[in-house]
Design a protein that fits this description.
Blueprint lengths: L2 H13 L21 H4 L4 H4 L16 H10 L8 H29 L5 H30 L2 H28 L2 H5 L3 E3 L6 E3 L4 H8 L2 H54 L1 H87 L4 H33 L1
Antiparallel strand pairs: 1-2
Helix pairs in contact: 1-4, 5-10, 6-7, 6-9, 11-12
Length: 392
């Protein structure tokens, strides 16, 4: 695979199908039946065992990392229960593997010489030590790749102890078997991956097997199957509890409805009286609302009439004050006119009386008249100014 294809697959796995606006890839959804549900859960045997001696080839269903990313995002909000489909798929695959293991065991039993139960137990002990040594060597290689030197050294010490035990077990097995049959290769079938293991395999061969991709892939598949069984059992139990709860709620509602219907059928008079009371209470509440509305309307009308009467009285008082001011001005004008008339009459009488007097008296009288006329004009001016100020 080229570097560009690897980058594209990495982006699909991280961001999903709609990472660059490509609508053609969105024609198929992760919930489609054509999509492999085991691939969505990262446990499809076609992916796990690719490149091994038991490579299964390409899966018949769709495998897409972008669809897996879409499923991981959507599964946070909704449970699609794809674990059941993946569990069925892995169960069928592991069942086939177990059948092959049993067939290989029968074939070995037919081809190899018959041995006693005691010798078979000693051979089984050698096989167990071989398996233990192989697993420990695989662990040493893994720790060395991770850079954990101290832990790998501790595991190597355990390997040396297991090798010593193996030598002792082989010596016991050799002593219990004749030389001719001991030289024959004794095989054993691996219970995990159904591969053949030799009794006299060296440590390098055992480490390659137990640390190989085939054996570890089968271990991963079997562990994933156990995890899926546990998850499916928990979800099924949860669903069953929810169903029971809903069923109990429905039964409770049905019992309540039945009880109400029975009570209505037994006491029709009470039900009618209750309905009559309800109708009466509703009519009473409506009547109260109407009364409150009418009272509020009357209050508003009274308030408006009071405000209008107040405004009228204020305008009437203003008109009264203005009429009083006008009458006062008129009375002032009349009094000033009468004063002028009285002055004119008095001056005429004086003129008549002063005709018989001396010319000096006449001159004095003329001067007095001129002075009085001047005073009268000044008073007239003052009164006219006061009238103009009042009108203003």
């Amino acid at each position: 695979m080229s570097a560009q294809a690897q980058m594209r697959a990495m982006l699909d796995q991280l961001m999903g199908t709609s990472r660059d606006g490509d609508t053609t890839r969105q024609r198929i959804k992760f919930s489609d039946d054509r999509v492999c549900k085991s691939h969505l859960l990262n446990c499809c045997p076609h992916d796990v065992l690719s490149g091994t001696r038991m490579d299964l080839g390409e899966c018949l269903k769709v495998h897409d990392l972008a669809l897996r990313a879409d499923y991981e995002i959507a599964s946070k909000e909704q449970d699609f229960f794809f674990e059941l489909d993946a569990m069925d798929h892995l169960q069928s695959f592991i069942a086939d593997c177990d059948r092959r293991t049993e067939v290989a065991k029968k074939r070995l039993a037919e081809t190899q010489e018959e041995i006693s139960a005691e010798v078979a137990a000693k051979a089984e002990r050698v096989h167990e030590l071989n398996e233990e040594i192989g697993k420990l060597l695989a662990k040493v290689e893994q720790l060395g790749a991770e850079g954990n030197v101290e832990e790998s050294q501790k595991v190597m010490d355990e390997v040396e102890k297991a090798r010593a035990k193996k030598r002792e077990a082989e010596e016991v097995y050799r002593n219990s078997m004749p030389a001719s049959s001991f030289q024959q290769q004794k095989l054993r079938v691996c219970e995990v991956c159904s591969a053949y293991l030799g009794l006299h395999d060296n440590d390098r061969r055992l480490a390659d097997h137990f640390g190989g991709k085939l054996h570890l892939g089968f271990i991963e598949i079997r562990e994933k199957l156990e995890e899926l069984k546990r998850v499916v059992a928990e979800k099924q139990e949860k669903r069953n509890l929810e169903r029971l709860k809903r069923r109990e709620e429905r039964e409770r509602e049905e019992r309540e409805k039945l009880r109400r219907s029975r009570s209505h059928s037994k006491n029709p008079k009470r039900s009618r009286s209750r309905e009559h009371r309800r109708h009466r209470s509703r009519s009473m509440s409506r009547e109260r609302k109407r009364r409150t509305r009418s009272k509020s309307r009357e209050k508003r009308h009274r308030h408006r009439s009071r405000s209008s009467s107040r405004s009228r009285s204020r305008s009437h008082q203003r008109s009264r004050h203005s009429s009083r001011d006008r009458s006062r001005e008129r009375s002032k004008r009349r009094s000033s006119k009468e004063r002028f008339r009285d002055q004119d009459i008095a001056s005429r009488d004086r003129d008549r009386n002063s005709r018989d007097r001396s010319p000096r008296d006449r001159d004095r009288k003329d001067k007095n008249r001129s002075y009085e006329s001047a005073n009268g004009r000044s008073e007239d001016r003052r009164s006219s100014e006061e009238r103009e100020a009042g009108e203003i």
